[in-house]
Amino acid sequence: MLYSKIEGQGAQAEGESSEAKPLVILHGFLGMSDNWKTLGTQYATEGFEVHMLDLRNHGKSFHSNEFSYEVMVEDVLAYCMTHNLKKIDIIGHSMGGKVAMLFATTYPEKVNKLIVADIGPKYYKPHHQDILAGLNAVDFSLKPDRTTVDEILKNHIPDFGTRQFLMKSLYWKEPGQLAFRFNLAVFNKEIEQIGVALPSNAIFNNPTFFLRGGNSNYIKDEDFEDIKNHFPNAIIETIPNVGHWLHAENPVAFYEKTFAFLKEN
């Protein structure tokens, strides 16, 4: 079963009971549920029961040699069934957005509204080579400390923000022994899976919101037609002056736009 962080139980009006609306949040490649804690808490204060998942091979969830969007979708379905989440709103960023798209098109009866952050349904060429090279350059048998790990990563990943994001998955496996929480060995073998396109016949007709970063090239104007083919009721908006990690770079705008969409009837 997937590891999760759950925030909020929903609001109750005086004299009546109302169940919290389940909201499932899926992180991107090499991320984890912790990346969404602040935003998750905000959604929870507005009456959502927020489930922030660690997808397989990420965070505190189980490691597996199987790694594809199909198996991740089945993981999310099993999680929803275990937690009795009959119908959910779902937010997915990047890889998590691909999982959310495939989940919504495979099990449309389980999804009320879909929010996809800075990823489209199209195929993406592998583009994480520098990041993987940096991660693979870390030799944990030498028992490096956090500063040393950062120095090694810097040789391949000059961007400070990206390194900080990756360092969040660093933990003390045992005293004096650091490790990454994610399953790097499987990612090395299955990296092609990250860019796989949504099946051509995958369609979800419920309200869908695509939110892209103005400085990101993951969703281009020419991708709009493809998005609409899969998601006929899609709205596409842009947060200016942010890149691919739009929810981290401008969390205020991200929250305002996504919450406005979620609260609409």
TrEMBL record:
Record's keyword annotation contains Hydrolase: yes
Domain AB hydrolase-1 intervals: 21-119
InterPro entries assigned to the protein according to its UniProt record, in alphabetical order: AB_hydrolase_1 (IPR000073), AB_hydrolase_fold (IPR029058)
Keywords of this entry: Hydrolase
Gene Ontology MF terms in the entry: hydrolase activity
Matching Gene3D superfamilies: alpha/beta hydrolase (3.40.50.1820)
PANTHER family documented for this protein: PROTEIN ABHD11
Protein name: Alpha/beta fold hydrolase
Biological source species: Flavobacterium myungsuense
